Amino acid sequence: MKAKMTAKIHDLAQKTGEFLAQKGWVLVTAESCTGGWVAQAITSIPGSSTWFDRGFVTYSNQAKEEMLGVKASTLERHGAVSEETVKEMAKGALLNSHGDVSIAITGIAGPTGGSPAKPVGTVWLGWSNKQGTRAMKQLFSGDRQSIREQAVIAALAGLIEINQ
Predict the structure, then answer these.
(1) Residues with pLDDT less than 50, the chain
(2) Which of 39, 53, 82, 106 has the fewest beta carbons closer than 10 A?
């Protein structure tokens, strides 16, 4: 299973690169629970420097505020794992880069940290471009590694789907 997921991530990263190159767009990422995995997958593709600007790994709330401009009030009111936060992460990534499109991810990969309202496996994905920002909530199952892999796959697949 692990090898299949990793191959899927590589294939999606390659498709993402082809898609971005075709559009003439540059990607930027803002990641929390995935710890830069999307950026790593993207930069494993030869030629990615033409369509990838940078990745922000903003694991702490302080990093989300300082690097992406996520409002402290958003974090206090809605929490780090929320639609509001992931949208601010996606927008902030664009504002603090030379990107045309962004991917943002925040979630609870476990095995601890969940609650009845936000169980382990809750992940918010966000995508932003000049036309606007979209977010989607997912509830993934499995161990920490599996939840993170599923988030990376969903983020890459979602970028292409939303921007077709």
Answers:
(1) 1
(2) 53
